[in-house]
Amino acid sequence: MNLLHASWLPFRLRNGDQEWRSLVAITDPDVVDFALPRADFQGAAYQLVIGILQTAFAPKDKKQWHQYYALSPTADELTSAFNTIEHAFELTGDGPLFMQDHDPLSQQELSPISGLLIDAPGANGIKNNTDFFVKRGIGEVMSPAMAALALFTLQINAPSGGSGHRVGLRGGGPLTTLVMPSDEQSSLWSKLWLNVINRNTWRYDDPNFHDGSVFPWLASTIESSKKGSEIYPSTEGIHPLHIYWAMPRRIRLVIDDEPVQCLISGENSEQCVCHYRTKNYGNNYVGNWDPHPFTPYKWNPKKPNEDHLSQKGQPGGISYKNWDVMTLSSDGNGHICARVVDHYNDVAKRKWHEQPQLWVFGYDMDNMKPRGWYSTMMPLFDVEAESHDDIINATKELQDLANNALYQTRSQIKAAWFEYPEERKLKENKKKKDKTKGDTSFIDLDFWQQTEATFYLTVSHIAHNLNQQQSALTSEQAKHWRNTIQSVSTQLFDNYALDDLGDIRSMAKRMDARGKLMGWLYGSKNIKAFNNDHNLITAKDTKHAK
């Protein structure tokens, strides 16, 4: 089974139908998306196919990039390009196999194929019956197609896996960011091609597709049980395109000729995958690699020579509080957006009459344990490169005001709920544990969602104003943001803390908490500073809400 030529992927058509076709289907204008049964597989499919295009069909310059964006290549053109790398995409057979160790690992024990799924319960979870939310058995039988995606998904996201099981080149559970058209019904080709970088912008030597410098499974694994086996960006024999195909885990699929129904896709298959073999101490990627084309990075701006770390998913999800580090680059602030975003800004943005989006997705990992999967869309604005620091600074002012307001809102809601709010020092025993601890993330989520539209509207004003050589915000635009923060914070408190009358004593406590929140929202140093910065001081504006 060759992944470049077999009909192994499900595609969604413009009319809503779903068809299983080969990769050349991406040239069909009626194909608008993949149609995979798992969110992580959907994200992995995009990364896989963009990597294939970048490797075998990268445009030579901006002009050619635009030509192929306007009109996709023919199926024959793409097949001809795929033929140059088809030997690296065999999933079954006797030679090197896609994303699998060069050694057959025949001496290793069999492991259930569900172990390739990042969210599958581990052995301890099954033994202790703690698999409450993600049940055992979710992927005990797979088709070769779904096993290939499970394998690729693990290799590109590989978290810490215990003794000697190496993490991915981007670190465990990196966030991926891809540029997307605003119209969901745009062709799949346009969605993929927006993330392919022309060779004039990203310059590298013509790759050798046979020696393992691009596809590591074509050569023996560099075992990493001893010091000195680390793989650095400068390691001899490593091509820049290797970052699309990094393979930290040593795995071999065990594929049997037995008809089954795949438990992932629900489709019937003539072959089944129930087990795999694995061995530790695979390729150990370390050091400061060139930023992966799909991922933003951060570092300590005071120590720029230290390792740059990929942005990861965090508890609480992805919201506009992360917008600037996902979409903009700033050495002074210690972060850089994904290379595909820079390429779009350089090549495509002035050719468009629509606002594109940034698709941000990935796992939130706690070492080996996934806490959640996040996926969201963020707008991309037309910002001149020399204005990045200015828009970042203006955006951070908005984010800081929102973060401070959210903290005050959450604290006063808890003060209304509980006898001992977290910010109140206990007089009798300062070491006594805070009685208000608990999961209040739903308050945060509500706040971010209700203020998101106004945030992006305000950022669009900032981008436009800076491009016109004007101040970041007019007084009226700044006032709208401040008023939104005040209004949403008040509504959240009233919804969560005043949803029932209760007794007189509890109502007095809740109204006291509300008064403190109003005092902060309309008279705190943060609010006054924002008012002063944007000339918002008026008698009307400083009245407390009733």
What does the model show?
It is a single chain. The longest helix is centred in the last third of the chain and has 30 residues, at 388-417. Helix 1 crosses helix 5 (144-157) and helix 12 runs parallel beside helix 13 (525-533). It is built from 13 helices and 14 strands. With 546 residues, the protein is an alpha+beta fold. Mean pLDDT is 89; it is low at 124-133 and 426-434. The chain starts with 8 loop residues before the first strand and ends in a 13-residue tail after the last helix. A hairpin with a 4-residue loop joins strand 1 and strand 2 (18-21). 41% of the residues are buried. It has helices at residues 39-56, 62-70, 75-83, 123-127, 144-157, 188-193, 323-327, 339-347, 388-417, 441-467, 475-497, 504-523, 525-533, and strands at residues 9-13, 18-21, 31-34, 110-112, 176-180, 250-256, 260-261, 268-269, 272-279, 297-298, 309-310, 335-336, 357-366, 369-379. The strands form five sheets. The protein has a three-stranded antiparallel β-sheet. A three-stranded antiparallel β-sheet has the order 4-9-6, with helices on one face.
Q: How many beta-strand runs?
A: 14
Sheet/helix structural class: alpha+beta
* Form type: globular
Number of helices: 13
Stretches where pLDDT is under 50 for at least 5 consecutive residues are: 124-133, 426-434
The major beta sheet can be summarized as: 3 strands, antiparallel
Radius of gyration in whole Å, from Cα? 26 Å
Q: What percentage of residues falls in helices of 4 or more residues?
A: 25-40%
- How would you state the average pLDDT, rounded? 89
- Gap between N and C termini, in Å? 69 Å
How much beta, percentage-wise? 5-15%
Strand order of the largest sheet: 2-1-3
H-E order: EEEHHHEHHEHEEEEEEHEHEEHHHHH
